[in-house]
From TrEMBL:
It comes from the Bacteria. This is NAD(P)H-binding protein. Residues 4-120 form the Saccharopine dehydrogenase NADP binding domain.
Amino acid sequence: MKIAVHGASGFTGGLVVAELARRGVEAVLVGRSRERLRAVADAEVRVATLDDPDALAAAFAGCAAVVNTAGPFTRWGGPVLRAALAARVHYVDTSGEQGQIHDVLATAGPDAERAGVTVVPALADDGGPGDLIAALTAARVAPAREILVADLRLPGGASRGTARSMASIVGRGPLEYADGGWRPDTGGHAPVDLPGERVEVAPFPLPGVATVPRHVPAARVRAAMRADVVKLFASFDPGAAELAPAVLDEATRRAGRWCMLARATGSGATATGVVTGPDPYGLTAVIAVEGALRLARGDARPGALTPAQAFEPAGFLDALVPHGVAWRVE
């Protein structure tokens, strides 16, 4: 089995290549620079640029799936997805960009079904676990009336790729799902309680608003993030993003910890789910590879699906536990 990694010479791409090697899976490194790709690993290299769709599709040919790690996905994700569909190859990406994720889920389904493949965006440390824990939490109070998905990570190191993605989305503003459709979220949020801590949060364009309403029939779905982290990401205009480090050293990565919370309210009942883990970038690679391999095994039906539609939520989260992830719903 071969898994193509688009953007393999980037920070997240290199971590995905390393995770595939750890699992004994052959990686095909895809990008625009042969020299940079060869420096990543002793693996097959296929050079293709975004402006050459035929070459890009040929680069994915013969692979079981492609993991797209090259953001900002709002700018650069479309050609990679179309090439994967042309090559009839399953597709996952590590996007955390709400608008792009929404667009993929809204438009890519028919082409994916015709190609007989599955498209799953948002397989990163926020979108994947956030969608999965929201599905499990909502099931506790079904039918859920309102769902909040919150990213409660502490401020920490951000790579240049993350900074570029944040710069591409903060100007669009966050969406909420209400009254059967998506609209700008202009409201505030009450603080979120964690054990021993009350966290001030603010609206933020997280993937969950794009994913959760597609499998949970809630009247309203909103997203929030720690207020101080929102301020940090809001500072990433395109110029400032280029000043962020291209690669975070291992000590900085290991010092980080991510935490996704889902709170579901039903008729007289509330449930809260939390999933947390170390090393946001390293776990993003684990999550993306886990998803790609499950698609390669035929675990999901063809179409454009959210993580919780493609994979059994508890089983997927349990597969992350050996990597330091913990989750609970109460």
